[in-house]
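#onboarding

Welcome to the new folks! Below is a worked example of what a typical request in this channel looks like: someone posts a single protein sequence, and someone else replies with the predicted structure as tokens. Don't worry about understanding the tokens yet, we'll cover that in week two.

Example request:
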Amino acid sequence: MIQTEEITKKYLKFGEKMTKISPKKKKKLLVIFWILVIGLFFVNPIFSITLIVLFIGIRATIQHFAFMKQFAEENGLEYQPWLSAKNFQGRLFSISNSETASNALLGEYQHCPFKIFNYSYTIGSGKNSHTYLFTAAEIEIPEADFPFILLRSKTMPVYLPWDLFQRKNDVKISIEPEFQKNYSLHTTAGYEIECLEIFTKDLLIFLREIAPQFSVEFAENKLYIYDDRLIRDKKDLTALFDLMKRLIEKIAPALSRMRDDFSALHSYYDKKRP
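Example response:
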């Protein structure tokens, strides 16, 4: 399982090399590998099983590398094997110091730069550590300056610990009963009206019908969409890609118009709060 940026880079470099090997040579290498594993099994079964587990992990990494790169090529996007995980602004990216962002797809839609990427973070250490992996999208809204706003999907309790939105000055906003089994809505105190102007009933219906598993967070000038797992197939990645574009179409113009309102509120609360 990928736990550090260094390991991620090694996997991706290896994966890139493997995708360039001819099918005939891959088949030959596979035959050699299984002969080696079977031979070692009679000498050291534990080591042989370890090799099999390692092989399965590497193979999955290579396949995912090829999948993300192909998706980028098919949709006119730029592919980057890894990103700096320190440049993200959402609260989910502050949970752990052991984090990686890889297999990034970069592009622009309606003057909004965006990224779709795999993200992982590790909590705990040693035998008590656990690594979470999922797919996220980042949309930059030029010249915006948002407060903390999070629409939390009820399918993502593991990735979004409660203390992320129980900080000082955070409030939970009441939403209509028909959406409460799917979502909870949180923001910084004082921005409740603006938050509801973004997450209207129409937008909540749209999100619930299209992709109820996604959570949406606003932070500074970025909008983040979090899936509840690592996306591994074209259908689901296309769904995230399409949702991202439709969100830009639906709310980016309104967010740009709200820029002055947010700026005025930031100035007011910065003076008022200790």
